[in-house]
Amino acid sequence: MTTDLLARRHATLGPHSPLFYRTPLEMVRGEGVWLTDAQGRRYLDAYNNVPHVGHSHPRVVAAVAEQMATLNIHTRYLNERVVRYAEKLLALFDPGLDRLFLTNSGSEANELAIRIARQHTGHRGVIVSDFSYHGNTITLAEVTTGLDAAEALAPHARAIRIPDLDAPDAPDEQTLLRSALAELDAAIASLDEAGFGVGVLLIDTLFTTEGVLRPPRDFVRLAAERVRRAGGLVIADEVQPGFGRIGAHWWGYQQWGFTPDFVTMGKSMGNGHPVAGVVTTEALLDEFGTRNMFFNTFAGNPVSAAAAEAVLDVIQDEGLRERAAENGAFIRESLEDITAPYELLGPVRGAGLFFGFEILSDAALGTPDAATTKDLVEDMRERGVLLSRIGRHDSVFKIRPPLALEREHAELLLETIAQSLEARFHG
């Protein structure tokens, strides 16, 4: 059946839409941190961040079903549920970030934030990291550096290397910080000289596509200050780090001690329902709104708001952010113990419930080993645990479970990783 379904998919969606694993999985059910395939086998999901509070969470399902059965309209009518959700969401941000644009996807959110920034600054220049992904609109494809895209890096874009203290050749923290800021200064100067100016710095605040990097503590804050002095604004892409995933904070930017001009969200915001948003300041929203009639027929509808509100309520009522911090600390400490005996495994990276560690083919040279990383991901799947890989060379083990993960699930995850590594390196 799965083979037939794959052939039908290729005949309709084409062969280029990506699938996980050498033999694709056909999933038929999800519950909490578990996925069940068409053959009835259950897998521990240590990868999917879209079902943020767990697959098919009953409170999210009930909220969506109830609202769908009652009313679903767009935002050009008043609706209590939509406004109530906006109030709850904005209460989680730092003072000054007090207005919300609702969208359908993270791509649309980043596109809108760039559009607002360009209007405010009068500049077109965009600065991104040199291995990143923020969406698939034309604007974002032209600044994509971490995925294959036919569009070349746009003339108005500059890509900078995010400094990583865990890199094999990393110098001391202050030297690394000075070098990274000098590269940013050069990018700013280049945009000015080309006549584009600096419109925006766009960063994923956990540097996830890059491989969950660990920059010097002050890098993000100082980078934001430099961009603002040059006349630009800062977008914190929270599509992956946001909504309590990092445990210690609601939002990834908060760990860096600065406040962005825009926060963009998606994926986990509705636990799989397509809802996303841009949080910004009253001044930026008003400036944009007086010159543009912005609306989206589907964004901000009551059903989407019901899903998103239920996600916030579950996170708070079930203590999932606190659980992410607690389980994250346990997993990190355990992973460090598990990986320590293997010289071909890099340091454990990440925060809260987003982890990684690099697999190397030469420890002395720090040579990444994408093939072994892929083999390990496949082996974990055979052992009943789903995860993936990320990073510049696809050589960083990627562990990113739903926040519904409990201690017993974490123990199973760790036990399976230990078995897989043992079989690969000592088997």
Give a structural overview.
The protein has 427 residues and is α/β, with parallel strands linked by helices. Helices cover 38% and strands 16% of the residues. It contains 12 helices and 17 strands. The protein has helices at residues 2-12, 58-68, 80-90, 106-121, 138-141, 173-193, 219-229, 282-289, 302-317, 320-339, 370-382, 407-425, and strands at residues 27-31, 34-37, 42-45, 99-103, 125-129, 157-160, 198-204, 233-237, 262-265, 276-280, 349-351, 354-358, 360-362, 367-368, 385-386, 388-390, 396-399. A 7-stranded mixed sheet has the order 4-10-9-8-7-5-6, sandwiched between helices. A hairpin with a 4-residue loop joins strand 13 (360-362) and strand 14 (367-368). 48% of the residues are buried.
Number of helices: 12
Summarize model confidence as the mean pLDDT.
95
Measured between the Cα atoms of the first and last residue, the distance is 34 Å
Proportion of residues in helical segments: 25-40%
Strand content: 15-25%
Helix/strand layout:
Layout: H1 2-12, E1 27-31, E2 34-37, E3 42-45, H2 58-68, H3 80-90, E4 99-103, H4 106-121, E5 125-129, H5 138-141, E6 157-160, H6 173-193, E7 198-204, H7 219-229, E8 233-237, E9 262-265, E10 276-280, H8 282-289, H9 302-317, H10 320-339, E11 349-351, E12 354-358, E13 360-362, E14 367-368, H11 370-382, E15 385-386, E16 388-390, E17 396-399, H12 407-425
Parallel strand pairs: 3-15, 5-6, 5-7, 7-8, 8-9
Antiparallel strand pairs: 1-2, 2-3, 4-10, 9-10, 11-12, 12-17, 13-14, 16-17
Helix pairs in contact: 2-9, 3-9, 4-8, 6-7, 10-12
